[in-house]
Structure formats: structure tokens, C-alpha cells
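Running this now, will post back.
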Amino acid sequence: YWLNDSNLTAQFSHIVLADHNLDLRAQRRQNQLQTWFISAQKPFFSFATAYISLSDQVRLPNTHEIFGDRGTSIGNPKLQPEQARNYESGLELTFGKVQSKSSLYLRHLSDAIVAESDSRGVIHFDNLAKTQHLGFEHSLTWQPESYLKITQNLTLQNNEIIQHQLNPAFKGNQVAGFSP
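Update: finished.
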């Protein structure tokens, strides 16, 4: 939707998951999840655009996380979908053949799926109760010709465990499987 040079975008999805519980074959497991996304974009001057977005997202466990890989990892059929609340704002600047994009984001995850290894080095997957991710991303692109584009990217991220289901002492630590 466009209003006075501002762009407003919204999306909503309803997901119903039903499967046989992989541990107890006689039972069925059903989840009803919603995802949504809303954002606003506003150009300033002829070279700058600012945006802000808010969303709830769901990530389903993949087959590797559920079933393992017959060697280096053990699957976990009890994994629940990851659910995230995301906040993001950014600025895009364009000066001729140079484009600069910066964004700041905050992400709260519930039931975060993480890979942890045991003393043998075997990886297993678990849901953590809550994690928080704070980050900054910057991209600088120079396109001197239509066939040549040079891009530099920078990502800084900090993540921590807010609440851990299996071991409350992990609270405040970095999340395993995510780059700091």
C-alpha cells in the first residue's frame, strides 16, 4: 500500500501442523501457528529511505534436526517449532553508483532450536526456552558498470540465553550454534 510516497506492507499466515507423534505412534500431534509481518518505508530527499518492521515468524525443525544423519548427529523427534518476534529498523542511502544499507534488529526467540555436542562430539538438537539476539548489519555496494558489482558486508551480533529449560545456570551465556 502506498500513501504519500510511503510504503506500508502487511502479511498474515495461519499454519496448521498435524503429524503422528514420532515417539508414541498411536498419538497425533497438532500445532496451530500464526506468522505475520508489517513494515513501513518512507523516502527522505532523493537519496535516502528509512524503514521499520515488526514480525512474528515460525521456523519448523528440519529433517536433519528431527532424524539426525546416521553418524555425527542424533535427531530429536520431540523438537517444537521455533517462534520469533522481530523488530528491525534501517536506512538506505544511494549516491550515484554507491549504495549503503544499514539496519539494527532485535529478535526474541522461544523454543530456539540449537545444536549442542556431547563429550564424544556427537551433535544433538534441543529447544531452549528463550533467547535474545541483537544485531547490526551494514552493506556497501559500488556498481561502476552494469556487469560489475562490488559489495562489502558487515554483521555484528550478540545473542544470549534468557531462559534455559534444561539448565537454568546457562542463563546469560551465548547461544550454542549461533555466531557471537
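The two ends are 37 Å apart (CA to CA). More later if anyone needs it.
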